Amino acid sequence: MNETTKPYNEIDDYIAAFSDEERQEYVAAEMALDLACVLYQIRQEQGLTQRQAAERAGLKQQAISLTLYISNSLTDSPREPVKSGAGH
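-> structure tokens emitted (88 positions)
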């Protein structure tokens, strides 16, 4: 295979067949995943709890918790321990 030839990828073909509405939804989902990963990374770098990050971002703590779930789903990083009660 020459260096300029792109390898075949079934996913590219699948996405190419999307309707305009599906493409818009795909782009929105991709942006949401990117944002979730950035929020998680910043929270980890600054050593913030979910509650602290939520307060700073003007979000509910559950939204920050969701970013942890998404980030862990996309990476091999260990999950944060599940704690009972609010503000973890």
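The mean pLDDT is 78.
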